[in-house]
Amino acid sequence: MAIQTRNKRKTDFSMASMSDVVFLLLIFFMLTSTLVAPNAIKLLLPQSNSRTIEAPPKIIISINQNLEYFLQGIQVNEEALEAGLLDKLAGHESVSIRLEADKTIPVQYVVNVIDIVNNVNKQYNTKHKVIMATSPK
Fold first, then answer.
1. CATH of domain 47-136
2. What is the reported pTM?
């Protein structure tokens, strides 16, 4: 009398679940690689010991070492900067504007941005503020 087992062991391997894992990893690395360098404008920020924690700014203005203005990462001249700020600030009463200026630029370019925001505040009776971005010492 021969005893036989009901459950046979299968020796083949299913690759279906392995391909799912590979695709999930591929999607994960594609998404995280876009977050690695969010600031495409190369700036050497001034250093400071003080630290102000702010809510995420709605508007970012950058000035690079070539004295070029960038509004939300798009290069603009000074007149277009004012028009673009008016457009982005329309309908808001108080917005934090982060100013990222290279430490080698003259102070006048920083003052120009602050003057533009102050003019908008006077014209529309708003309370927008400019926060200077720095790097830790």
1. 3.30.420
2. 0.65
